[in-house]
Give the backbone structure.
Amino acid sequence: MKPLEPVSTTARVVLGISFFVIFFAAWAAVTFGGLVPKIFLADPVTMVREGWYLITNHGFLADIAVTVWRVVGGFILAALIAVPLGLAMGAYKPVEAFFEPFVSFARYLPASAFIPLFILWAGVGEKQKLLVIFVGSVFQIVLMVAVAVGSIRRDLVEAALTLGARDAGIVGRVMVPYAAPQIAEILRLVLGWAWTYVIVAELIGSSSGIGHMIIESQALLATGQMIFGIIVIGVIGLISDFLFKAVNQKLFPWSTI
Amino acid sequence: MSGVVVKGVSRTFPGVRGGDPVQALAPVDLSVGEGDFVAILGPSGCGKSTLLRIVAGLDRPTTGTVTLDGKPVTGPGADRGMVFQSYTLFPWLTVVENIEFGPRERGVGAAERRAVAEKLMAQVGLTQFANHYPKQLSGGMQQRAALARALANDPKVLLLDEPFGALDHQTRSLMQELLLSIWETHRKTVLFVTHDIEEAVFMANRVLVMSARPGRFKSEVTIPFAHPRSYKLKTTPDFGRLEEQLTEDIRGETIIAVQAGF
């Protein structure tokens, strides 16, 4: 093993899977071996059995669907507002000077701390859940997109200017395509964070969703169900990550050459 | 007066962090007639690129004016094509799309701009690489594409800012011949900035030597060789004499520049 030495595809896959194998083996060892009481940590087999029970008897798939819709809905709303605003800030310095201080401040406001307030404003329905995701994502996306757009290579802009490009061409045909792969990457990253916000939102004042199931299961001391819920979130995150990466590679073949 | 006329142009950059302002360019005069090929030769940091950027409209002169065919230059425009030392092809566009960028910005129709691009790709020998992305090309190929991209707008003036500076010696020689052959066909007005004496003498009709910072024109040499020129010219005694003369001229300036720590 040497620094930065590449690893073959086969070795990469084997190594990646082996961590999961070790992880589950360790988990099985401490639970079946009796090192940890069942009441605190269910064993993997119980977890799978209880997960299956949730899906067949409690309509857990519907809960998953609700949670996915909340994350995607809130996230899309945030992206629709944040990406154009970030673009405007990255391209036009006065716009940046106007918004940047507030957005930087707002970015540190914890979305979860807003939940009681949002319940007061929007009730405990879908609106409140979407609001949490929205507030948790929008400021992050704005700032990161602004930085990505603002970091454009000056010589590319100058080249476009000497080719006769005007403002609209500079923004639309140079800055946007330059930053597009980075923006896609930012969205992928922030979508991951949105998943933590949705669960927090569902833990408080909710009657459906994965987070709701987890808090219900706690009352029943059903650690297997709780762990199953957490793993489901992880798996969905992994799938959305793969999808995002695949779409990015398809849309921006030039950035990965 | 047709062509590029530079009158009393100087450029002073404001001091950085409370430092003194830096005069990069002393007031200079220059006129480049239509179809002329002028090389500006100078040590690094002498302000020659600054002058070229002012003619391009990418930088504003502190004093003086630049006119093109009698009209004052107030900003960058498609009538002055430029090739930079750094690789500035748009990485998200293929070679042919890069070359079509300028015509597309000016609203030229798809069929017409494709025809222009194909003709230029043939001239710079990139037809087979039309659908390659810049990252898939060598440095020399990228600069050839950049040259074709600048020519696609059919500019009145071609501004070249050490376009072959980052290339190895052999590639650079081939690029000089290519540029020269293109100039011999199009007879565009060319303003070429370089620190390579051989390059300047081989391609230009006039070579202007710039002094160390603040840059001003120190001497001018007319290059008498007829066009078309062959690379064999470089080994003739006349060529050697001109090179020697310019080497003497520029050497003193380079010493000043090095001592000043540019």
Chain B touches chain A through 29 residues (CB under 8 Å). Residues 5 and 144 of chain B are 28 Å apart (CA to CA). The mean pLDDT of chain B is 88.
